[in-house]
From TrEMBL:
Record protein name field: NAD(P)H-dependent oxidoreductase subunit E
Domain (NADH-ubiquinone oxidoreductase 51kDa subunit iron-sulphur binding): residue spans on this chain: 486-531
Cofactor: FMN
Family statement: Belongs to the complex I 51 kDa subunit family.
SUPFAM superfamilies associated with the record: Nqo1 FMN-binding domain-like, Nqo1 middle domain-like, Nqo1C-terminal domain-like, Thioredoxin-like
Keyword Metal-binding among record annotations: yes
UniProt keyword Iron present: yes
Keywords annotated in UniProt: 4Fe-4S, Iron, Iron-sulfur, Metal-binding
Species of origin: Siccirubricoccus deserti
InterPro entries assigned to the protein according to its UniProt record, in alphabetical order: NADH-UbQ_OxRdtase_51kDa_CS, Nuo51_FMN-bd, Nuo51_FMN-bd_sf, NuoE_N, Nuop51_4Fe4S-bd, Nuop51_4Fe4S-bd_sf, Thioredoxin-like_sf
Amino acid sequence: MIRPSPPAGGIAGWALPRSGPRGRGVVPGAQATVEEALAARGLELRHDLLIEHLHALQDSQGCLREGHLVALATLLRLAPVAVFETASFYAHFDILPDDAPAPPAVTLRVCQGLPCAMAGGESLLGTLRQAPPAGARVLAAPCMGACHRAPACAVGHALVEHATPEVVATALVQAPAAPEPPGFATYAAQGGYATLRGARAGHLVTGAMLAALTASGLRGLGGAGFPVARKWQSVLANPAPRHLVVNADEGEPGTVKDRHCLETDLHRVLEGMLLAAVAIDAEACWFYLRDEYPWLRHALAREIAALDAAGLLPMPVHLRRGAGAYICGEETALLESLEGRRGYPRHKPPFPGQTGLFGHPTLIHNVETLWWLPDILGTPDGAARYASAGRRGRRGQRLFSVSGRVRDPGVKRAPAGITARELIEEYAGGMLPGHRFVAYLPGGASGGILPERLADLPLDFGTLEAEGCFVGSGAVIVLSEQDDLAAAVRNLLGFFRDESCGQCTPCRVGTAKGARLLDAPAWDRALLEELAQAMADGSICGLGQAAMNPVRSLLRFFPEAVP
């Protein structure tokens, strides 16, 4: 049956044929603005570069205008909703209507992570909000990787540590100098890249690297602790092409170790990355760096170019920029972000080693894990030397980020299996004067809270789980009798509520529900435990599964502190 054509102008129930794309059209001049911003960065029109495109627009225009997003979607041949949903997912992008006033020229982001809150971050935020500097807006922000020099405030793209209103005012006039990592020439003069040259020349083959890693006992140091040798083997078991991804998106409150590695020994990380890439015969390397470290992004771009000029890049290395989403530290959410989408964690299996970036087998490593590789693989006794460094039968060393009520906070290179008490006394100078050790977080915001009486447990994978905690990324936050433990737990759960990606109901609804329950004058302990179990059982990724760990710890170990 042939349906007759509708009359001119249409009638109810009839659909006129489309004469153009659905939705709003491109605003005159918008496409030229977008093309100019992308050309200035040398960016191709590829879907996986969408977040880089958004950064280019935000940096050049001060915000993301709706008309520019439509123009970008047109250039990429994407539906506008695909661009809008990605842009709106990331906290560092400001989407505004075309006719809205531009945001202030400078944004002050005041860290509200637990170590900064303990050091006066909440008071700093309140003071700046009451009297914001001229031409600036003031926002609360999650952890910035300056927990050892709290409180922190980002003034535009400059990080201000030990921040006060006066220090922030000074930074608005003159930005503080950013740390400058040692360059290629310095590292090479100290014997750097000799191990990589040997691997490329065939003197250090993949089998020998795997044997050394197995003997060393090196585990992934981003939080999960999976044995590195087994991780490489799982990737090698799948056909090429393969990719290597560096996860430099540390955002766990209390964690600063990856920043430390990159600031003090950037090329050691890059050599570790290239050694791993050669071992798995990677087609390319992808370095995903959190947006809160702009000075490191500039240094990485410069030093990767120096490696290329020296002929030391066996494959392309792509530097990618995060956009303020903690969830992108989860390995599969990071892959989604690299592919130009929202950072939604994927269901596993398949695991990244089987089906990762662009559907190819992918090896994902944390910065610190790669930092150890030149030591372990660089000499015949490297693996044995690393393995023998642990305490209490544990193998290896690791970098602990220590913050809170200690005399000397910072990143501490210490043996695996060290206890929190030893870490505080031997490496962090002991407790601050006037503070008594009461509790500690062994693994950042998600690792739970333990009382001082359990401070003699080894800080290592598999030793704290019986207490409902874990060492994770090794972020140790030390609390004293002067800290309100219930307030600390509210801070931590508020962080997870704000950083939940929203994909799965247990986490999206559970973190919000939990935060509301903690605001009650009296906590409903039974309901909190039930909620925690439901989130642990039903959440897709570790964020939702571990978000209630601090609450459970408080209920279990500190009943006297529970309202």
